[in-house]
Amino acid sequence: MSDKQSVLQVNPIFPHTQQLLENQYEVHRLWEAADQAAFLASVSESVTAVVTDGGSGASADLLRQLPGVGMVTVFGVGVDAVDLDYCKAKGIRVGNTPDVLTDDVADLALGLALGSFRQMAFTHNYTCQGRWLSDGPAPLTQKFSGCNVGIFGLGRIGAAIANRAEGFGCKISYCNRNERTDVPYTYFANLKDMAEAVDCLIIGVAPTPDMRGVVDADILAALGPRGHLVNISRGWVVNESDLVEALVSGTLGGAGLDVFEDEPNVPEALFTLQNVLLQPHVASGTVETRTAMGNLMLENLQNYCAGKELTAFVA
Length: 315
Ligand code: 8YV
Description:
Blueprint: E1 5-9, H1 15-24, E2 25-29, H2 36-43, E3 47-53, H3 60-64, E4 71-75, H4 84-90, E5 93-95, H5 102-117, H6 120-128, H7 131-135, E6 148-152, H8 156-167, E7 171-175, E8 186-188, H9 191-197, E9 200-203, H10 217-223, E10 228-231, H11 240-249, E11 254-257, E12 276-278, H12 287-305
Parallel strand pairs: 1-2, 1-3, 3-4, 4-5, 6-7, 6-9, 7-8, 9-10, 10-11, 11-12
Helix pairs in contact: 1-12, 5-8, 9-10
Bound molecules: 2-keto-D-gluconic acid.
2-keto-D-gluconic acid is lined by residues 53-55, 75-78, 101, 281, 284.
């Protein structure tokens, strides 16, 4: 029998982190099991921690089958897919990877904003399809520099987005539960009021359950036909069918989206639109950041196993 601690891994992770994990722990790979219930029953005696990512998390149903688990370590900052109520009730610690991914996520948010305003996916295809030759210069787009940017959720990532947008001469507003006294930006307590006032609404909220579907047809209509939506939080913060409808009908100007309601499924109606830039949930997806996320995820796990406080945690 191995003297390594035994962990359950819900889904595959970045290969470098995977290797480090396997060097130090006895890893049980849930995603490879044909019969997951039988697999969980076979490892439930030994497993003390769950390794997962932001998308898969750890449900109460999973954790109930692993009574020896005292910790969930998440490869990601978002813990919305972890049943936090269950974890808190059972005293299960939950580690995550904030801060190390902030720059990359904020970078991509600005890329998505530019991509939406300047229709960069469309103009890329226009170039590659030879349409510059056959049809002449591409259609004109919309200026981003100097526009009004509204950030829904001015936390760590939202603030990094604001900081970058300031570099583009944008005027920054934000909508939070509470007004912040440490920023010079315009505060809106009401999301619709902010959507009416801005050209670009960037969703950076922490994905708590009360955020489900809050960006709906009403908010998108307030943003309007020259307004753009950027989402790097979670797809389900937006009512996706309302979003598709607004983009198809032109009641919304454009969108830059890294996240979707039912990943990896993306509404096909979006594929042929000129006014969108789509990304496959890659905001934190650079080698540098994924390495840092993996290291922090492992550090949290190591600390838990050594009886020390976690470096970054939500429970
Ligand atoms: C990751 C994320 O894509 O941090 C999060 O919450 O959504 C992302 O950074 C994911 O956890 C990695 O698979």
